[in-house]
Design brief:
The complex is a heterodimer of chains A (243) and B (282). Chain A has 243 residues and is an alpha/beta fold. Chain A has helices at 43-50, 75-79, 97-107, 113-126, 142-154, 172-187, 199-205, 223-228, 233-242, and strands spanning 3-14, 17-28, 32-36, 58-63, 66-67, 82-85, 160-164, 192-195, 208-213, 216-221. Chain B has one domain: MetI-like fold, CATH 1.10.3720.10. Chain B has helices spanning 15-45, 52-59, 62-102, 109-123, 127-137, 150-176, 179-187, 192-207, 209-222, 234-245, 249-281.
């Protein structure tokens, strides 16, 4: 299987504090990798770095056969190939669901209004949101908002999807509907990198789980191995606290 | 069976409700009495004050008010016209300045510097000074006929002065839109300018509508500053009548006309502010 994303010794610090420390990881096309670790272990920062929202200090980020961390590159064409879904949804509150979803396809990909809307409607239908197309985000539940945010990202037809603790801001009873969307994406062989606190979910859907601590990749293994027989002391400590 | 049913009428209130009602009734009665008392004192005592007759004939002369009001009203149309062509120009110029101050591209640094200097200088100078400087100064350079109009240069003075303030309102609005909104837009591949145009600015402007309304009210009043450089607008018209009739009632007439416009607009601005506060808290 080909490698979609390759991180080579990525490092990132904020004003002297190291947040990502010499991080290397390969993600194969169609693979789903879960990042677990305590708050502040660098999961979110790593995803933001891959999406080029944060410039990295050192290392390489290869998407297919391009080092996208090359500072002289224009980040916009690269970002449209990589979708990022945020913990706090970040829908545009002044736009309807439909306009949220069609804004980027129209302005970035140059699609016509009707074409973009038809494509958006297809996606909204697929995730049970077609009746919300004309609603504004603040009239939706948290779970619906997050599903719209995922649809908005999918409308750009990304090759790689980054999911940043997408259920952490949700009421417990709304988590399920969002995880169902991720299950459906996994079934369609979307390449995904997902930072999560939902250990049971990671165990269920991940092809591989990475444990991060203080910005370092401590251990990576298929979920069956990592959750039942962690090799590292720090992984064992973390798992004993959260499981 | 019916004998055991408690008789519940709408009047059967809880202790707390009875107490609250009693308090409410009492405060209503007290406030009515005190208003009546004050009104009575004013009506009875003010006319008895020494010099009241002079004040009345000088400021509240009914005949003069009736005679001058129509002309004042038509002069106010001039104020409204100046207002209506200044306001959109201020909106556009101040938005441009706010965006210039917000730019981070090195090639546009001169623009950014200009924006900063512009707002600093023009906010630090009285608007009336600008009106004199530009309204008298530029036509005084000897411009040909249609281009020396005080309407043009008075408008320019107002637009320059107000844009400095309004640009700051827009800038505050832009900065109040959380960075996660631009992050979301950028992550979808939108360029910096598209992010500003479609995501940040619409939210920034919407948020600043109440603040902008206050500048609408201030501008409505400050159009009268142009009376100093020529246009026969309401204040100058009132001034003419004051000299002609040796009476200040035309000023009061002008004040009444201003209030008829500014009070509703002020109330509307307050309503918008209150609504925005509610939206934030709920």
């Amino acid at each position: 299987m080909s490698v979609k994303l390759k991180l080579k010794s990525v490092s990132k610090s904020f004003s002297g504090t190291t947040v990502i420390d010499n991080f290397s990881l390969d993600v194969a096309t169609g693979e789903m990798v879960c990042l677990i670790g305590a708050s502040g272990s660098g999961k979110s920062t790593l995803l933001r770095c891959i999406n080029l929202l944060e410039p990295i200090d050192n290392g390489e980020i290869w998407l297919d056969d391009f080092d996208i961390a090359e500072p002289s590159l224009d980040p916009d064409p690269i970002r449209r190939r990589i979708g990022l879904v945020f913990q706090s949804f970040n829908l545009f509150p002044h736009l309807t669901v439909m306009d949220n979803v069609t804004l980027a396809p129209r302005k970035v990909l140059g699609k016509g209004k009707l074409q973009a809307q038809a494509q958006a409607m297809e996606l909204l239908e697929r995730f049970g949101l077609s009746d919300k197309a004309r609603a504004y985000p603040d009239h939706l539940s948290g779970g619906q908002q997050q599903r719209v945010a995922i649809v908005r990202t999918l409308a750009m037809q990304p090759e790689l999807l980054l999911l940043d603790e997408i259920t952490s801001a949700l009421d417990p009873e709304l988590v399920g509907e969002v995880l169902d969307v991720v299950r459906a994406l996994k079934a369609s062989r979307m390449t995904m990198l997902l930072a999560t606190h939902e250990m049971a979910f990671a165990r269920e859907v991940a092809d591989r789980v990475c444990f991060l601590d203080e910005g370092r990749l401590i251990e990576t293994a298929p979920p069956s191995a990592l959750f039942t027989a962690p090799q590292e002391q720090r992984t064992r400590e973390f798992l004993s606290r959260v499981l | 069976m019916t004998a055991f049913q408690p008789t519940i009428t709408p009047l059967q209130l809880t202790r707390r409700q009875r107490h609250d009602r009693r308090l409410k009734r009492r405060s209503l009665v007290v406030s009515c009495i005190s208003v009546l008392l004050v009104a009575l004192i004013l009506v009875l005592l003010v006319p008895k004050a020494p010099g009241w007759e002079a004040v009345k004939s000088s400021f509240f002369n009914w005949d003069i008010l009736v005679k001058t009001f129509p002309k004042l009203l038509s002069a106010f149309v001039v104020d409204l016209k100046i207002f209506f062509w200044s306001a959109p120009l201020i909106f556009i110029l101040s938005l441009a300045i706010a965006l210039a101050r917000n730019t981070r591209r090195p090639a546009l640094f001169p623009l950014r510097l200009f924006g900063a200097v512009y707002t600093d200088v023009l906010r630090g100078v009285p608007v009336i000074l600008l009106v004199y400087l530009i309204g008298f100064g530029i036509p005084g350079l000897g411009l040909p006929r249609p281009y020396n109009s005080p309407y043009i240069w008075g408008t320019v003075a107002l637009v320059l002065g107000y844009s400095a303030y309004v640009a700051e309102v827009f800038r505050a609005g832009i900065e109040s839109v959380h960075s996660s909104q631009s992050a979301a837009a950028r992550s979808l591949g939108l360029s910096e300018s598209d992010t500003m145009r479609y995501v940040v600015l619409p939210q920034a402007i919407r948020r600043q509508v109440p603040a902008l309304m206050n500048f609408v009210i201030a501008l409505l009043k400050d159009v009268a500053l142009l009376s100093f450089i020529g246009p026969i607008e309401i204040l100058r018209q009132a001034n003419v009548y004051k000299s002609l009739m040796a009476n200040f009632t035309p000023y009061v007439g002008a004040a009444i006309i201003f209030l008829c416009v500014t009070i509703p607009v002020t109330r509307y601005a307050d309503y918008l502010l209150a609504r925005q506060r509610n939206e934030r808290t709920t």
